[in-house]
Amino acid sequence: MLETGITYxxxxxxxxxxxxxxxxxxxxxxxxxxxMVALMxxxxxxxxxxxxxxxxxxxxxxxxxxxxxxxxxGDKVNCKAKxxxxxxxxxxxxxxxxxxxxxxxxxxxxxxxIDPVKFMAKL
Length: 123
Description:
This protein is of the alpha+beta class. It has three helices and five strands; from the N terminus they run E-H-H-E-E-E-E-H. The protein has helices at residues 20-23, 33-48, 116-121, and strands at residues 7-13, 57-67, 76-87, 90-99, 102-114.
């Protein structure tokens, strides 16, 4: 059953493939903002596993993110997503990311419940 308060956490170790230099979002060997956003969305997706009706999926429709601190390769990043609002087919999450020294980013992320067959047929 989908309800507010559902949470999911995941822990990653920043790899060379996750850096701004590789993503092209900068030149430094630090955790890239696009990699952090992908981690946040992935954490939200995992948060919903087992809570949607059969045949449903979600797509991301909006993310408002702040990346407030750099994280070097080799450090661990813990990401936590929490469902904070459900309005019709829109699900809102608050998401936090922390490395070993503290918070590195946060976001408000909206996902929309879809029927994947109908969604893909419209493309």
